[in-house]
């Protein structure tokens, strides 16, 4: 047992195939004198805790970081490419929600999934501010829309209203253009010193959106909500974003009665085959 990383090889199971060595991104595993994998000298500090060694071992012989293979979910339930494509094609931005909370089980599933999203250098310090309760969402909605109304009345040409300006008429008419009457919101923040602070939140929300929609939950990316949180820091205090973190992006979500019946027919994207 390597103490620092708690690497444990079950000698009865390990067939010394070397897959764990080959799949270790920082290359900190080697075969020891006894023929079994071990951590190279001074290698522990370079471990990114990705657990690839545990995941790749065909024999379930390797435990690390206090995780044993018996407690891992099996990877035999891969969905087919056609199903994945169908999910991607049918994904839509929902702007129509039931005015009710998601059930706790679905909310729990969505949150647990987030532990599996990739982050640069396996950083995994993202911070997710969830508005779990419709009543809290209504308070935030009312506060933001109230502030926007006041600003539009005071100085509609104010540059800080930038992205909101195109919705001025609707906002002045009292429509919830920012939060689309959604019952829930998730705002993702990342540490300023993380390797990929702008990309990681976007990846997390991309996974969140697809998983949510596979569960029948509507979602919409929301630049306006993210913008409102930046424009009104007093309201954003409720998100409890930790010191040294910056707000990445926001997504609204919730139960919906809306069903899209067919895919859209987007223009083909521009691709260049580099020679
Ligand atoms: C980064 C990003 C920001 C967005 N911000 C908003 C927003 O603030 N409000 C909104 O209603 N939709 C927003 N959307 C949704 C887009 O308007 C939507 O993706 C587009 O209209 C196409 O619809 P579809 O997602 O159903 O294909 C955003 C989408 C993305 C990717």
Verbal overview:
This protein is of the alpha+beta class and 275 residues long. The protein has two domains: 64 residues, Alpha-Beta Plaits (2-Layer Sandwich); 172 residues, NADH Oxidase (3-Layer(aba) Sandwich). Helix content is 31%, strand content 14%. It has nine helices and eight strands. The longest helix is centred in the middle third of the chain and has 21 residues. The structure holds flavin mononucleotide. The site of flavin mononucleotide has 9 residues, from strand 7 and helix 8.
Task: Tell me the strand order in the biggest sheet.
Answer: 5-6-8-7
- Strand content bin: 5-15%
Radius of gyration: 23 Å
Order of helices and strands: EHEEHEHHEHHEHEHHE
Largest sheet: 4 strands, antiparallel
Q: What are the main properties of this structure?
A:
binds flavin mononucleotide, 275 residues, NADH Oxidase, elongated, 31% helix, single chain, Alpha-Beta Plaits, two-stranded antiparallel ribbon, 2 domains, alpha+beta
Short note summarizing the structure:
This protein is an alpha+beta fold. Helices cover 31% and strands 14% of the residues. The chain has helices spanning 19-22, 52-56, 81-90, 104-113, 134-154, 168-172, 199-214, 223-231, 233-236; strands spanning 8-9, 29-31, 37-39, 62-63, 127-131, 184-191, 217-221, 245-255.
SSE topology:
Layout: E1 8-9, H1 19-22, E2 29-31, E3 37-39, H2 52-56, E4 62-63, H3 81-90, H4 104-113, E5 127-131, H5 134-154, H6 168-172, E6 184-191, H7 199-214, E7 217-221, H8 223-231, H9 233-236, E8 245-255
Antiparallel strand pairs: 1-4, 2-3, 5-6, 6-8, 7-8
The structure holds flavin mononucleotide (FMN).
């Amino acid at each position: 047992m390597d103490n620092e990383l708690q690497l444990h090889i079950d000698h009865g199971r390990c067939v010394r195939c070397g897959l764990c060595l080959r799949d270790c991104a920082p290359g900190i595993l080697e075969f020891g004198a006894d023929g079994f994998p071990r951590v190279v000298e001074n290698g522990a500090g370079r471990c990114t805790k990705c657990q690839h060694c545990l995941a790749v071992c065909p024999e379930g012989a390797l435990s690390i970081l206090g995780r044993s293979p018996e407690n891992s979910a099996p990877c035999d339930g891969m969905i087919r490419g056609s199903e994945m494509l169908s999910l991607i094609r049918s994904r839509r931005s929902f702007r129509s929600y039931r005015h009710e909370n998601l059930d706790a089980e679905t909310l729990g599933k969505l949150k647990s999934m987030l532990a599996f999203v990739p982050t640069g250098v396996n950083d995994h310090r993202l911070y997710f501010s969830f508005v779990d309760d419709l009543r809290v969402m209504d308070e935030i909605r009312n506060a933001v829309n109230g502030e926007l109304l006041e600003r539009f009345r005071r100085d509609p040409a104010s540059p800080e209203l930038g992205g909101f300006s195109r919705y001025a008429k609707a906002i002045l008419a009292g429509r919830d253009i920012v939060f689309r009457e959604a019952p829930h919101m998730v705002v993702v923040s990342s540490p300023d010193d993380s390797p990929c602070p702008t990309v990681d939140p976007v990846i997390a929300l991309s996974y969140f959106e697809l998983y949510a929609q596979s569960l029948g939950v509507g979602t919409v990316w929301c630049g306006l909500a993210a913008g409102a949180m930046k424009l009104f820091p007093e309201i954003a205090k409720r998100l409890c974003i930790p010191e040294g973190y910056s707000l990445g992006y926001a997504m609204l979500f919730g139960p919906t009665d809306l069903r899209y019946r067919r895919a859209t027919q987007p223009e083909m994207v521009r691709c260049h085959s580099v020679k």
